[in-house]
Amino acid sequence: MTLQELKSIEKAFDVPLSEMKRIIRAFHSEMGKGLSDSDGSLKMIPTYVDRPTGDEKGKFIALDLGGTNFRILEMELKGGKNISKPVSRQFVLDRKYLAGDGKALFDFIAGCVEIFLKGKGIDKAAHFDLGFTFSFPVEQTGIASGRLLRWTKGFNAKGVIGKDVVRLLDEALAGKHVNNVKVAALANDTVGTMVARAYEDPDCDVGVILGTGTNACYREYISNIKKLHSGMTYAGQMIVNTEWGNFNKLRTNSYDKILDEGSGNRGSQILEKMVSGMYLGEIFRLIAKDLMKKKVLFAGTNIGVFGKRGCFKTEYMSAIESDHSAGLPDMARLFKKLGIKDTTLRDRQLCRNICRIVSGRASRISAAALAAVIMKMDRELSRKHTIAIDGSVFEKYPGFSDRMRSALKEIFGNRSSRVSMVLAKDGSGKGAAIIAAVAGSL
Ligand code: ADP
Ligand code: MG
């Protein structure tokens, strides 16, 4: 009986090579639409910046907003591919700012900048260019201007959608009399991540985030960004933010549909809802709840434990997949903590299988999307590509990066050795500072 249930879940989450190839084709078609401005699920946002040369110099401040944490950094670019170790400080972003008034959110951020400058004893007379990493879909209109298209990842502050977020930050800084800091560049975390790696690695041409949310950017020829042509004539390349979390040409199953219906952004961020840290635990919860209802799991008791949206974190899945001992005692302890006192070994094995199925699909969809992006630049994989990746799902989820690598091998064969995925931890803030430097040199 259990086997049957497991088989049907496996089937609902399966991403065979043929499906990865279909995703790649659909991805290319959506990329084409996004670059020429017709409606599609990929926004393909021009960023007005290309990768750095590694020779940019100066002291910069960066501000990194867009996920679980909010950080401010100060760092010095020394040229010759050298960067000082950033001095950084993390601030807790109280949940009240996520859904409150947008002005309060930006005032809070500006207040943190003031505290940071004071705390570091930074002279008020010294001028600083600031790179602002703002990791939400923004329609950029220049290197230091862009309107928020929509919130993602649980943010919902009022009165910000449609506004220029650089202006909001500048105004908030002025309100706090922080007059020596100018917002010189706006960046997405994918772009920051890519640029931070590219400063020292000329092969780096893709940035990926696999954390709370998921997204990617890559280098595109300006001549291919058709929607820019009216305003722009110059040749060369520019980083494009794909906003791939919103890709929707994917096969969804009944659990995906329930998850989407219960989300605050129904119908959007479909890929993100199958792949990122904010949602994997939730997919597990929905499956577990379903199997408990069918009395296949935990003898159908304690169903209330899985009743509340968001109560099963992706970290728990990581812990479950890390438990390699025969009797799965760690998992037994985890479930006890969650309120399920008695679990059988069979229950625990079933849970581990479900985790593998859910995370396996996530890693294969991520790999297919990544392959599509790489092939957009270099169809035959004729040169090396470094993919800078940040985010806890890629970094910490057991086997996630390995499964992505083996999926890339299925897609590309031996040429997949030309693709190296590297962890670019906390690159997004560092990258924003580098982009501020690039902006200063334009
Ligand atoms: P952010 O994307 O907010 O900048 P992270 O990259 O740390 O920050 O991603 C946070 C997300 O990663 C959360 O959704 C969390 O559930 C998930 N996460 C945190 N730790 C782990 C872990 N050990 N294994 C898997 N997912 C994790
Ligand atoms: Mg992050």
Average pLDDT: 93
**Residue fraction in strands:** 15-25%
CATH architecture designation of the domain at 46-199 and 426-441? 2-Layer Sandwich
Look at the helices and sheets and give the structural class. Answer: alpha/beta
CATH superfamily (homologous) name of the domain at 46-199 and 426-441 = ATPase, nucleotide binding domain
* Estimated helix fraction: 40-55%
Uncertain stretches of 5 or more adjacent residues: none
Count of helices?
15
**Quaternary assembly:** single chain
Looking across the biggest beta sheet, what order are the strands in?
Answer: 1-12-11-10-13-14
Summarize the main sheet. Answer: 6 strands, mixed
Query: Which value, in Å, is the CA radius of gyration?
Result: 22 Å
The CATH class designation of the domain at 46-199 and 426-441 is Alpha Beta
| Helix-strand sequence | HHEEEEEHHEEEHEHEEEHHHHHHEHHEH
- CATH topology category name of the domain at 46-199 and 426-441: Nucleotidyltransferase, domain 5
Named once each, the bound ligands are: adenosine-5'-diphosphate, magnesium ion
